[in-house]
Amino acid sequence: TLLGWAGEILGFRSETPVFQGASEHEIGALLKISGSIWAARSLGSDLEPPRLGPEEARMLAEGIQATGGGQVARTNGAGVGLGRPLDGYLESPVKGLRDFMEAFARYLVEVARELSGGTISEKLREDGWDAAADLVGARRIKSGVDAAVNELMNRAGLRPQGKARLRDGRTGEEFDADVTVGMIYMMKLSHLVDDKIHARSIGPYSLVTQQPLAGKAQFGGQRFGEMEVWALEAYGAAHTLQEMLTVKSDDVSGR
Asked: Could you tell me the EC number(s) of this protein (predicted)?
């Protein structure tokens, strides 16, 4: 879901075979890069980010795999998010990845300058762009990219871990928990699905034993059980789950 969202913003599509999909580090890096670009645009920036099309994304993935190592030390909350912090790639053995990360750091500084209206670090600090100000004037950037990314994403209401805080459309109030918002590409064994898929309404349950009423050939008979609930919970589908539990599976008339 998150990889699809990143690809939609950056302009590429990805295939993730079973057991050979993108790693947590790859998804985390793409998520922070695409999230920063989305945040900059939503805040009104017109700056063009460093190009990251299909070829660049492949180079980025190869560079992340080649960098290896475990988690980089996380200080001051700068490394919060999915996968390895971006600062770990500034010293990558892959030159293409190093060059891209430095160009991306310069982009973050220019976005902060555009949105604040200032060019020097003191002006940026006055407007609350402390992390971006730390990158100004550095001949070679060795750290601080993660902090600048988090600073920009937080201003746009994004969370570094890839989730967003949604609002209730009726009241305007924020929901209690963050929600994963993405774009999913899913391909299953369609030749098997065609033989098995069928329409079946989830009918009323008996009041005491909570067993589905009626039989296969009539309405009902299909239990919406724990595993189906877990599947929905795994996707954070709170509203779908609520509808299923209150409308579809309860014995409304008996209740």
From this structure: 2.7.7.6
Tell which residue, 3, 5, 26, has the closest CA to residue 15: 3
What distance in Å separates the CA atoms of residue 70 and residue 86, rounded to the nearest whole number?
A: 13
**Co-location of 58 and 146 in the same domain:** yes
Average pLDDT of the residues in 121-147: 84
DSSP 174: B
Does the pLDDT at position 230 exceed 60?
Answer: yes
Q: What is the spatial distance between Cα 81 and Cα 31, in angstroms, rounded to a whole number?
A: 9
DSSP state letter for 140 = S
CA distance 10 to 86: 17
Residues facing residue 179 across a β-bridge: 164
* d(C-alpha 61, C-alpha 30), whole Å: 9
Domain presence at residue 133:
yes
**How many domains is the chain partitioned into structurally?**
2
Q: What is the pTM of this model?
A: 0.65
CB proximity list for 150: less than 8 A, separation 6 or greater: 77, 78, 80, 81, 131, 160
CA distance 168 to 172: 5
152 and 230 fall within a common domain: no
Which carries the bigger pLDDT value, residue 91 or residue 228? 91
- Find, among 22, 95, 31, 101, the residue nearest to 65 by Cα: 22
Angstrom distance (rounded) from CA 152 to CA 47: 14
Cβ-Cβ contacts under 8 Å for 250 (sequence gap 6 or more): 204, 205
Pick from 106, 112, 95: nearest CA to 141:
106
Integer-rounded Cα Rg, in Å, for the chain is: 23
Residues 113 and 23 in one domain: yes
